[in-house]
Description:
The chain contains 4 helices and no strands. The protein has helices at 18-30, 39-51, 80-83, 104-108. The chain is elongated, with a radius of gyration of 24 Å.
Amino acid sequence: VRPPQRGIFPLDHDAECRPKMESYLNCLKSSKDVHHKCKELSRDYLQCRMDNKLMSEENLDSLGYGKDKEVIGAEEYDKSKEKAGFIAGKHINKPTKWWFQLSKKEWYGDDK
């Protein structure tokens, strides 16, 4: 049995990697979707897929799992601006129009 082509990700019908997938998803859920905290579980899941011929063999270091790709010093955004009442785009006071709301003069310019 040949592994699938790169970019094709077949379903795990026999649930061979389901426990690894579930542990990864549980980690994401408990870490509020901060993926770098669950990187080892993600690596284990992809390795399971490769071992069971659900994806082609790849060097995991080239997929972003190398020591040089570790996330160091990541800080979670505290949303302090939003807590203080900041709303993105609210400082823009000019009314906007869609293209179909423009007059012919505005659409074509002054020369027509």
